[in-house]
Amino acid sequence: MEHSIAKLAPEFIAMAQTNAKKSRSSRVTGKNDNRRSARVSVEDKQPQVHDTAHIKARSSPKQKRDIDPPGEQAGSLLKKNQGASAKIAMFTKEFLQGVQDAILQQECNKSSGTDCSRCSATCSDCPEDHQSAQCRRPLFRCLDCFSAFPLCRECIVSEHGRHPFHHVQRWTGTHFEKHSLSKLGLRIHLGHNGQPCSSSIQPPTDFVIVHTNGVHHCSVVYCRCQPGQQHWKALQLANYQLFPATVTTPQTAFTFQVLDDFHRHLLASKTSAYDYFNALKRHTDAVCPDLVPDRYREFMLVMQFWRALALLRRAGQAHNIDLILKHRRLGSVAVWCPACPEIGFNIDESVVVWASDLKYGNFRLQMKKKNGDPDDRPLVEGHAYFVEEMEYREYLKKVEGDSEVSLCSNLKVVRQQDRAKFKDTEVSGVVAVQCRHLIYLPQGMVDLVKGEVYARTDYALAHALGMEGLRQQWVMVTYDVWCQYSINLGERFKTFGPEWAENVQRICGAIPKMHIHGHNSECQIKHSLVYERYSGMTYSEGIESAWSEQNHAAASTKEQNRGHRHDTLDDFNGYWNWTKVTQLSSALLNQYARYSNMLVRYQKSLKRISALYSSERIAAWQKIYDNEEKVKIFKKSKRAPTKDEVYASLVAKERSEFGEVGYLHRGLELEDRLHALLNGSDSEVEDDYETLHDDLCTWRSQQIALYPQLSPLPPIDEENLAATSLRLPSSLSPQIRADLNLVNASHTEMKLREGYAFNHLESLKLRIQEWNGERHSSENKKKKGKKHQIQVNARMNNLKIKQCAIMDSYNPDQLWGKDTNHHFRLGDSSRQDPWFWYAGKITDDTTESPETWKEEDDRVRWSREKAIADRLQEEVEILQEESRRMKVSFTKMKEVWEALATQEGLKPGYSEYAYCHAALYLTLSERCLRDWESILNKTSDAVDE
């Protein structure tokens, strides 16, 4: 292979191999099944039960088991292949009724008429309604404390000094009703560890505080020790994990917990803020949610800041990480791919670099036309995944009229600007750039207007690659309209400066493996990833999964202003990237295991195919493979022969001289004809009975002339030709063959039968090739109308009949072969042709030259198999290098965060946060090493077996 891909670090491999050997040496011979029993929680699987009287106990058809079996049986209690009825049957009517009773028992006051269980104080002289502040009756209970019993007023308040947002209820004498800790006298004191400030003489401020369990009315008392500081009230709230809705005179705040909780739900499930806040209102008052203070707008504003602060904090910008990572873009808050090359960080500048980027447009992430704030700007503009807006607009003013329309792709991506679906949209979608590990690149996303325009895509690509992209020796780009997009790429890139104009030739490209089937025949060869050298097994369709995830948020982001929308999508992209980073180690190594096994199989397959032909022919094919254009290598240029040409060729081949070989050859032919007669097989021309009789008589006379020692021979029964015994040497025992001096004849017959076997296989392959060719032709003719389709169906049926005589004796599941008339199809790299494509003998080109079309088919088949083997070899090497870079990146990031933690003059919490992140990257680094050990163990086990 003419690869220059960096090899895997020897010390990294050695470390993993050493640990793997230690792991293998500790194993017991044979596979130990260390299965841990795990009790499965089924709480979330229970149906909602409103009236257990209507629930009938369901009996399982299988043998009954205990609901809670001991020990090792617990793990097998709920199996994946169990039906829902078997799982539900365990929850009997009696058990569900018991759960219902337990739920309803919570509604009674078990402490009614007793003293407070906490203070044991008595209450004998308060009014009957027990509304006095001095009442010590246990009338109040908390719904959020675990297993809480009713307490008196004073005890319930003292117990919740650190839990001011719990829900409490008051006993009315007949039932519990909603109450408030604030009404019971609870005050939230800011400063002094929650104790009252001695300098505070102002009355408490009424606050609306939103927490994860609802909206609360609270009384807040500020600390007045240092009131002169700017925004001192808002900062006091922030120090107590309360984010104020304003910074001047706040009266609404959101707990850090509710902001973090919604942030997690937003990222994981794309829950809208509107739905989330409505759920909080319902949690507060399910009967009259409209009476709950509506703080939805304030919540949206605060969340925008919360997300921006999270991006800055996690990217290290709060710690001035740019002072250490000077090779990265200033102020970047993007999550970078640890496996992609960063020169000077995870790869040496002297190493030849391979990089891969994917580009696609998404037309679901739109933005409506509406009267919004024209000055609304993203909070992290240009530092995450969207480009800087003002510079982008200035660029568009120069190039907006330079539109190009694709003339090739049936997808017509560029022509989507004329579609009605973009009506009333200010932004019709986005185009984004990802690396081959499906991680969004910094500044690789731009807005689109009425479809994809190459100029906008150019801007996203140029800024995604950035100046560090100019340092790569070459870059692979895949795009669903690369065939048209690449035509004037160099000319368009001159807009970005002379350095890009000089280096744009380093960019090569291809079309993703699924989208390429929407292109014409030439594109499917010239721009196929399978035929693109050094592209590995990249399939380039992974960004579609990213779009399907982002599309869940389209309904909410299209209603947002431009700046808010960019911040939201930047946040989603960061979450997507971090998810991929944490899963990257196992993903790469699973691919490594898969492609390593495929490589071994394909190398054997290619070796078997090459063994069928002479070394001179393979050398000639190799020369074409190495030097010619892709269209000449992987596309057949010769047509299949006509029926008359095939017939004439077969007649010429079957000529042979009279003698022992000719006699045995005709005997085998007669054996086939008798076999067909016996089995009633159909043929193209039904064998004439008299002709067969005459041929048998002629052959019998030749037999007696050649081997008189066989006399007397059994007569030929004219009424039952199928029962005729030919008395070929193979039908006699070894002793009789020796006695009759037929040993040499039996050897000749064996060689002829071997030749017949190979001929049958060649005929089988020929029929499959004819079938593929006819099917390829018919697919085009069917489009011309019903008349052509009827003719095509007739020819296909006739071809099926011709195949029966050859194919009936073979396994029908193996009667196929990759169609060289078609271009590479999805799944071709994961499957190999059946065994008979590799059976045969080397043909001596000097004595016999095969049909031109057959040789062309063989050459294309060989070239395509070699292309897959080469891509697999490249992929294995690429994955080795990517795993090495990933391990180095995690280790370097650990060192970076440790350096940030030891900076001088850090505020409280900054150092601890940095050490926490250093530990996080240490965990990722160790996991990477463990994954390598696992792969090496599996590889060793496979070798041992």
UniProtKB/TrEMBL annotation:
Which stretches does UniProt call biased (Polar residues)? Answer: 16-29
Q: What InterPro entries does the record tag this protein with?
A: CxC2_KDZ-assoc, KDZ
The annotated region (Disordered) lies at 16-80
Superkingdom of source = Eukaryota
Q: Which UniProt keywords apply?
A: Coiled coil
UniProt domain CxC2-like cysteine cluster KDZ transposase-associated: residue ranges: 181-286
- What does the record list as coiled-coil region(s)? 862-889
> Basic and acidic residues compositional bias: what residue ranges?
30-54
Q: Write the protein's name.
A: CxC2-like cysteine cluster KDZ transposase-associated domain-containing protein
Q: From which source organism is this entry? A: Leucocoprinus birnbaumii
